[in-house]
Amino acid sequence: MGFRTDQIHAGVEPDPTTGAIITPIYQSTTFVQESVDGYMEKGFSYTRAGNPTVAAFERRMAALEGGVAATAYGSGMAATVSVMMALLNAGDHAIVSDVVYGGTHRFAAQVLSRFGVEFSFVDTSRPEVVEAAMRAETKLVFTETPANPTLKLTDLAAISEIASSAGVVHAVDNTFLSPYYQRPIELGADVVVHATTKYLDGHNATLGGAVVAADPALDERFRFIMKSMGLIMSPQVAWLTLQGTKTLSERMDRQSANAMAVATFLESHPKVERVGYPGLASFPQHDLAQRQASGFGAMAWFEVVGGVQAGKDLMGAVELWSLAENLGSVESLITHPVTMTHGDMPRDARLAAGITDGLVRLSVGMEDVEDLIEDLDKALASI
Ligand SMILES: *Cc1c(COP(=O)(O)O)cnc(C)c1O
Predict the structure, then answer these.
(1) Are 82 and 226 within 8 A, CB to CB?
(2) Can you give the pTM of this predicted structure?
(3) How many whole angstroms separate alpha carbon 219 and alpha carbon 321?
(4) Backbone φ/ψ region at 34: left (φ over 0), alpha (ψ -120 to 50), beta
């Protein structure tokens, strides 16, 4: 089936008892067993280990990413935690993209490293750097592309090949493009991680995560951590995210078209120094973006002339754009990383990661693009 069919139908059958067309919210902690001999005959025992609504969402995620199975979590971070806890033991080593979601860096560097796991944060946009960072103890390569917030890209086929020839699992955080635009398993990756909080939900309504595995043995290891650590997604969130996925392609196409228009407008604005959007010909990795994904997504950034103060002033001047962390929803959001998400980062490290003083991050939504552009134009004129 095609993607648009799968995003609506995959994983879901009419409810066997009532015919309800959408899977109900099975809001129940436990499931009564027929007999000791028939234990788990219907597939469920206790909701921390599995739930019918969550299972429907897991089947849909596996179908959309082209994996064999999936597990669903209470947040995107819980999904990342599950992958790292399942695959890394004391004494092991993992390679992680140097530009990566802040929570991923924090969990690796400040939590898991306390338990004897070593991490190398390297520039995964350069395959030779990943190859050089490989050790005998390396068990996981964890990449994110496009990466937050600079949108640096990693060549997924090249990194998958390096990882698989060393017998190492390659996990990809695919949150920014969603399976509609990018399917890492088709490019050779073993595991896909999502913050379903973002495009899969799409409405700023829920926190959730998913891990899709290309191999059933890997999925079993993630499911074991999910139930051992109590990381599972709630039935209500699974239900709502199942509805969100039905319009994923339409939202992403509209939001990406809006992002392209906004980025093009900003590129010619005198108060803008630089614009970063993978769809622009000026984007340094524009070719790779075209090669490994079928769309450019709806995240963009620009550098406003005037540094920290101009960035701060702009946050106060926009009206339609909401000043808010998060991304991927139908509402357009704007952030100034230096005074918001990356305020604690030392300036040198921040600049080295490409997060300059006047950097403004945009999550482009689904509003009329003329309104989005007019609001930015007015705000830029006022600072
Ligand atoms: C938001 C995000 C996460 C974490 O998801 P939460 O649901 O906030 O825990 C992980 N990776 C990326 C790329 C994200 O954008």
Answers:
(1) yes
(2) 0.97
(3) 39
(4) alpha
Q: 144 CB less than 6 Å from ligand 1?
A: yes
Tokens of 363: 């999550």
Ligand 1 pocket check for 197: Cβ under 6 Å: yes
Q: Does ligand 1 have an atom closer than 6 angstroms to the CB of 201?
A: no
Instruction: Indicate the top mutation candidate among 198, 233, 342 to test ligand 1's pocket, ranked by most ligand atoms within 8 A of CB.
Output: 198
Both tokens of residue 240? Answer: 């709502």
Q: Which domains does the chain have, with CATH numbers?
A: 3-245 (3.40.640.10), 248-381 (3.90.1150.10)
* DSSP-derived secondary structure letter, 204: S
DSSP 30: B
Question: Closest Cα to atom 5, ligand 1: which residue?
Answer: 76
Write out the E strands in 185-297.
191-195, 209-213, 272-276
- What would the pLDDT profile of 156-207 be if each residue is shown by its tens digit? 999 999 999 999 999 999 999 999 999 999 999 999 999 999 999 999 999 9
From 238, 239, 230, 235, select the one nearest 27 (Cα to Cα). Answer: 235
